[in-house]
Amino acid sequence: MTARRKMPALEARDQGEGGWVGPAFLFDLDGTLVDSVYQHVLAWREALESAGIELAVWRIHRRIGMSGGLFLSALLRETGRPVTPEEVERIQRLHTEAYARQVGQVRPLPGARELLAYLTEIGVPWAIATSGRMESARLTLKLLEVGPDIPVVTRDQVRHAKPDPDLFLAAADRLGVPISEAVVVGDSIWDMLAARRARALGVGLLSGGYGQAELEVAGAYRVYQDPADLLRHLDEVGVRAFAY
Fold it and tell me: Which of 32, 88, 89, 96 is the most exposed, fewest CB within 10 Å of its CB?
């Protein structure tokens, strides 16, 4: 499924014989490459309920993709209940523990491994930038078989997470490419807002539960169903592999 928006021209990058022409890719993780959004939602509900805060899961889902601190601030603002910084830290720790108990249910999204393998094969640089901390991201990175040579930027490594642009800026820097030559792929409006603030091209996936219209309004120039759908339409976002 593609959005009916005109995509701005990207500066082509020729990597030489057997190489590629196109942008670098910066991927979100949860809901973009792995089917883990709802496990995170349930883990947050468990952590919140342990602190005596009851919220419907749909309210929790609407904030998934933000940094943990902003996520909790936004949710707790809806309840009107003040919490101390110590309690916020405790809730975040309980979420990490609850998610670790559910990670066995998490699977790569359709086409995720194939997409990453294909980009690697044709020489397209890519990195992962997630609002999660490395403690929880490490569990899902194993499912994707991400090697140590792939840059992974987590919440621990930047000052601010999404919707701030820091994660994507750091990931582009790790790849050694200008952010203007990067495509940010994410499943949430927070990914698209961060991409827009970073001045990168945003591409949305429906695999995290946000709708196409929501992603487009937040800044997505193209919207696809999942990584498999994106793989089938890579030429629409500037990737052209050449056989010599």
Answer: 89
- pTM score: 0.84
Please provide the DSSP assignment of 27-71 as one string: E--BTTTEE-HHHHHHHHHHHHHHTT----HHHHHTTBTB-HHHH
CATH homologous superfamily for the domain 37-105: Putative phosphatase; domain 2 (1.10.150.240)
If residue 173 lies in a helix (H) or strand (E), which one and from where to where?
helix 166-175
Active site residues: 28, 30
The secondary structure element, H or E, covering residue 75 is helix 68-79
| Sole residue written with tokens 């196109």 | 22
Q: Where are the domains of the chain?
A: 20-36+107-241, 37-105
CATH class of 20-36+107-241: alpha beta
Q: How many CB atoms lie within 10 A of CB 139?
A: 19
The tokens of 43 are what? 């883990």
Return the SS3 of 241.
strand
The answer to whether the peptide bond before residue 178 is cis (omega within 30 degrees of 0) is no
Q: pLDDT 10s digit of each residue in the chain, 244 long?
A: 443 333 333 444 444 444 444 689 999 999 999 999 999 889 989 988 888 888 888 888 877 766 656 667 776 676 777 667 788 888 888 988 998 898 889 999 999 999 999 999 999 999 999 988 887 788 888 889 898 899 999 988 888 888 899 999 999 999 999 999 999 999 999 999 999 999 999 999 999 999 999 999 999 999 999 999 999 999 999 887 653 3
**Cβ atoms < 10 Å from Cβ of 211:** 12
